[in-house]
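ESCALATION

Customer reports they have been waiting on this structure for their group meeting. Please prioritize. Original submission:
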Amino acid sequence: MRVLLAILFLITASILRSAEVESQKAGDVIHFTADGKAVCDYQMQPGAVPEGVSKVFQHGAHLHPV
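Update from on-call: job pushed to the front of the queue and completed.
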C-alpha cells in the first residue's frame, strides 16, 4: 500500500510541478485546481452520507477522490 501511495504521489507531483495550482474555499470544502482543471477536494468537516450508508463513514479531514 505504501508503494502505491508513493507512486501516486510521484506521478501527481510531476504533473503539478509545472502547473499553476489554485485553491478556493467553499464552505467546509477546499477545491484544488491545476491549470483550471479540478484535481481534488479537501473535506474539512464531517459531511452527510448517502441514505443506507452507515454513520460510521461520516467524517471529515479527507481528500476526494483518493
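Sent to customer with the following note: Strands lie at 21-26, 29-34, 37-43, 62-64.
Escalation resolved.
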